[in-house]
Amino acid sequence: MLPGLPVELHERILEHLQDERRTLRMCSLTCRAWVFFAQRHLFRKVRIERRPDSSAFLAVLQASTTGIADHVRELNLLGVLFTTNGLPPPELQHIIRLLVNLETLSIEAVDWPRAMDIMEYSRIASHSLSDAVAFLFPAPTLKALRLWNVHFESANDLLHLLVAFPSLSSVRLVNVSLNNVPERLAQSDGDAHRLRIEGLYVENYTTDGILVLFVDRLLKPPFETHLRRIEWDIDYRVGPYDAGAPVLLEAVRVSVGSLESCDVKFDDDTWLRDLDISRHRKLASLALGLRCTDGLFGATQVDKYTNLPEFLTTLNAPYLRRLQLSFTLLSTRPSCNHLPWQRMDDALVSLHKKHPSLALNFRVTVLMRPCERGDVIPLFVGRFPATVANSVPVSVDVCLIDCGDSTGHLTYVEQHMWSEPLQ
């Protein structure tokens, strides 16, 4: 420990090393006074991918004399850790029980156990299914649940998982599949009243829209859903667009008094004609992501996103503070030329005149092969001459991704990212 420096400065120094795991490990072995701060960053996020790793981590927690379990805030679990019928093994339950400050739980690639298996395994058949799930995953402090590629026999199985965590406020569902969604989800009003979701993140690329039906049920009585954050990313090439847009619009509508941020990525902008955020007093950030990569997966669609310029021109959002437009482009392909760039350019000028305090941001992701790399900024800026001429303050975040194969199976090679004003 450096003499003469207060402990608070040592803590601040180690905070700057939170992503340098090797350095943090060395610090924890160098100075006894640094052990607590180094371990706090080393064990804040834990990912377990193999069953031997879960046994080893449990042994570390049980042998620790420095309170390692208290530092864990996020736990990521892969499906291979679970039994063949989807149940968490005893050592995994023991790990979760020891993590008294756990805030985020991520589960990837698992077939969720049937209700009867959960009840039998938990041996508390006299209680509700939600209580049985809570017995398997004892995490009363959990605030965020993230599910990737998890399959449920029934939507009620997913519901009971959400209700099992009394402090849960944020749910991320990525490619979650369900066999069926009944008209009424909750088995009792008590289950509905125990669910208090404030952040909803839905991403889906593989199913036929049944996950959207589950979200739709959560927006109806007896549930009282008032969202603060919405992220919505559904690829309608693999599912019906009309089944998803009304649910998204309903989620925005029922959250009129609570919604603070909304991030939507879309292939069809028809839904913007019905989006009304004029009464959302707390909505400070709106992000709209445009997929402009038709040429990557098939024929280019002409006159795509014709509703977006109209939406920007007529946008009535007096409380909005930040608007982000995200573009995913193929820089050297004609696929980006079919967008209504001139109309969007004029719409941004009109929007700035109506809301001069609104912060505008472009996020441009460019997919290209190594031989096609060029200066992307001039290519992009050239599409907004009126915005530049009227000195509309727009910041631009650029991300270049070199792709070795652009036939639909992108091979990530390299990424470059920077920010600068549009000028």
Number of helices: 17
What is the annotated CATH architecture of the largest domain?
Alpha-Beta Horseshoe
What low-confidence regions span 5 or more consecutive residues with pLDDT below 50? 294-299, 406-419
C-alpha end-to-end distance: 49 Å
Radius of gyration: 24 Å
What would you note in describing this structure?
By secondary structure, the chain is α/β, with parallel strands linked by helices. The chain folds into three domains: 1-42; 43-259, Alpha-Beta Horseshoe (Leucine-rich repeat, LRR (right-handed beta-alpha superhelix)), CATH 3.80.10.10; 271-423, no CATH class. The chain has helices at residues 7-15, 21-30, 35-42, 51-63, 68-71, 90-98, 115-122, 129-136, 155-163, 189-194, 210-218, 241-254, 294-297, 307-314, 341-354, 376-381, 385-389; strands spanning 45-48, 74-78, 104-111, 144-152, 170-174, 177-178, 199-204, 229-234, 261-266, 285-291, 322-330, 359-368, 394-403, 412-421. Strands 1, 2, 3, 4, 5, 6, 7, 8, 9, 10, 11, 12, 13 and 14 form a 14-stranded mixed sheet that branches. Helix 11 packs parallel to helix 12 and helix 14 (307-314) packs parallel to helix 15. The protein is globular, with a radius of gyration of 24 Å. The N and C termini lie far apart (49 Å).
List the helices and strands and how they pair.
Layout: H1 7-15, H2 21-30, H3 35-42, E1 45-48, H4 51-63, H5 68-71, E2 74-78, H6 90-98, E3 104-111, H7 115-122, H8 129-136, E4 144-152, H9 155-163, E5 170-174, E6 177-178, H10 189-194, E7 199-204, H11 210-218, E8 229-234, H12 241-254, E9 261-266, E10 285-291, H13 294-297, H14 307-314, E11 322-330, H15 341-354, E12 359-368, H16 376-381, H17 385-389, E13 394-403, E14 412-421
Parallel strand pairs: 1-2, 2-3, 3-4, 4-5, 4-6, 5-7, 7-8, 8-9, 9-10, 10-11, 11-12, 12-13
Antiparallel strand pairs: 13-14
Helix pairs in contact: 2-3, 4-6, 7-8, 8-9, 11-12, 14-15
